[in-house]
Amino acid sequence: MTRDLMFKDEIQELVYTAYDALDSPNGPATRFYTRDQLDRLPAGARDWALGVGNPTRHAKLAQGEHVADLGCGSGVDVLLAAGAVGPDGHVVGVDFLASMVERGAELAHEAGLANTIFLQGEIEDLPLADKSVDVVISNGAANLSARKSRVFAEAWRILRPGGRICLADLTLSEDRLPPEILTHPSAWAG
């Protein structure tokens, strides 16, 4: 069992500070999306693509499914998933930063997607009912959590029987880095 090198509140503050300081990030993660996907997004959504991959490309989303995006940020994957599941489907994005939740809701409105909702909450304690979604997606968020096992426990809790998880993330074995790197703010929020 790995021990926590920092307290959860400290890590959340580092992540909050790093993301709150962003002004106009110019979409560093757009390279993970197809031209067709990017063309379906409002320009503001492309500017705020901050993930580490493209879970919507691999999630095999179907019409009518219910999807949860954990650590949704400004909602790029929420918007793409909403298009994939259609008007009979539903996508909820959860992020602990109010600014990201607000930005995501604005972008969904701009895109004319009525089948989305954005909630402020922690991915270690999701504000969603048990067995309420068919698919959980996440893009570069689990690695920002100090309690990764809780993130996965929550994902399984909200999945319906037969549901699936598709996430893009970064991993690194803690035994390969010295504590001064593991506890550096950019290691958690960079």
Question: For the residues shown, what is the average pLDDT?
Answer: 87
SS field, number of helical segments: 9
Largest sheet: 5 strands, parallel
The order of strands across the largest sheet is 3-2-1-4-5
Number of DSSP E strands: 5
Low-confidence stretches: 1-5
State the shape: globular
Computed CA radius of gyration, to the nearest angstrom: 16 Å
N-to-C CA distance: 25 Å
What order do the SSEs take from the amino end to the carboxyl end, as H and E?
HHHHEHEHEEHEHH
Task: Report the structural category.
Answer: alpha/beta
Query: Beta-sheet strand percentage?
Result: 15-25%
Provide the helix percentage: 25-40%
List the main descriptive attributes of the protein structure presented here:
single chain, five-stranded parallel sheet, globular, alpha/beta, 5 strands, disordered N terminus, 190 residues
